[in-house]
Task: structure prediction
Amino acid sequence: MTVESMPKTVISWGIGIALLGGILIATAPFLVSGPWWAVNTEEWSLVIGVYEIVMALARALLAPLGAALIGAGLVMKYLDRRLAGERIADRPRRWRFPDRAADHD
Result:
């Protein structure tokens, strides 16, 4: 992965993870109540419990992680554009603290 393609890759991953999280939020309740979980044995109730814990964690983490990756990719694109200047005058100006001598005048 090159430095130039990194923001696009991060944004793409963010979109994919956010979509996966959204689909999971929408479909996970239907998957648990489906007919293939209908076996009422002790082993299957343990599987359902583990499945619900994993799905709850995924639903809570995937959508925010996708949004954070999209935001990070956009910041990377912005910083790449700001710092792309060849000459020193093209680069962004940075704020500086005022001189202490100027405060005492």
